[in-house]
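Can't paste images in this forum, so I'm doing it all in text. The chain is below; anyone willing to post the predicted structure tokens underneath?
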Amino acid sequence: MKNDRKVSQVNLKVNGTAVTSTDFFQLSNYGVAINDHAVSLKANGIAVKPNTAINLKSSDALTSDTITLKAGLVKTAPANTAVQAAQSTANLTVAIAYP
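Text version of the structure:
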């Protein structure tokens, strides 16, 4: 796909709730938004922003036909209690389009 000259554009888009004023995805705890932590997402080391398409043909997010998505927990504000992984979720939908 990366080197296929017949394909001019391949968009990767990850839909999810964005944390206000950041490029992170919202975490929730049993449906309630977690305000002091968020999810950071990268595709082959390139930041993936919520609800924003990345053209995989022209970006470094795709170096071959393999995409590696990495998610990380980001602390966005001081907190009195730790977020437990089993209690938090980030609902993300990945879409690839050939416009």
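The chain has a mean pLDDT of 80. The chain has no helices and seven strands.
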